[in-house]
Amino acid sequence: MDKFQDMLKDIVPETLKLLERRYLILQTVSHLSPVGRRSLSEVLGLGERVIRSELDSLRDVGLLTAGVGGVMLTPRGTEILSAMTPYLKQLLGITRLEQKLSELLGIPRVVVVPGDCDSNPLLVRELGRAAARQLEKEVRHGDIIAITGGTTMAQVASSVRNQSRDVIVVPGRGGLGERVELQANTIAAQLGQCLGGNYYLLHAPDHLPPQARAELVREPGIAQVLSYIQRARILVHGIGSARDMASRRGVGADRISELEAQGAVAEAFGYYFDSQGNIVWQVNSIGLRLSDLPHIEFIMAVAGGRGKARAIAAVAGHHTQHLLVTDQGAAEEIQQLLNSHPSPLAKNNEEDSDDSKSSY
User: Structure pTM?
Assistant: First the structure.
């Protein structure tokens, strides 16, 4: 297959470009349907004339149908879109990219979604859908699942198909300062409902003074949720860039400048990391701690966008992960980054003593 793929690129490169374009059109229609030609043109950055021609071709072969509100996938179009994904990944070299990234980051499995969330914001839905399918395969009856907050995690939870599982879902950490729909509590509740299990919420804000934190962890309701978090078999979490996450969580400008001066490039579950995965700063909130990661059986990180490549490499390359779900833009940038600046990616199975000794 690899040799055939290389020959296609040499002999008919325009065919691969056409296939990728039509795939992206079908994918976008699946997320926005019914959708008009002008909206598709704006989202995909293609001229209306090109969009019109492609839509006509896709309608002619029975993959799209037109209605009052715009075009939508036919049942055959939905089936074809799902079936062609693994073949497209092979033709575009994404399967090889997944294997290479797995080796470079030292992660057992990497799943790469075609495209780049930075250039196509709708792709975050596809990222969430891909992660949801992986989570559905992993979940067992009796599991405790912890999930963090954020835009991508919200997409994961909303993409899980309704099931009836005997599971418990909990937020990975407290954090009531974000928009309600992006809070870990909201996302844990939605995931628990989709899986047909139970969920428990953690009503605790970020940036707690030590005394307030110590009092909160003794409160019976919070103590119960923390006990579930500590026993989680599955963790699903996002990875963000340090500056973006600090701004989103209301961190002051002076503190953000200090983080940048200390080389912070990434944030995950309340920790800020430099490019080598070292902790630069820790938000004093309640919940999952970095030292808990080696004891969790299945950890899935989900993050995409070329601009997050450095952040993803910092977290996924230096701390315990079992599966990374990302997009093509981030994956290609990570590969280039690690190939040009090779460094040993040692997983930190034992975190620094302060973190290991701290309590919930």
Answer: 0.86
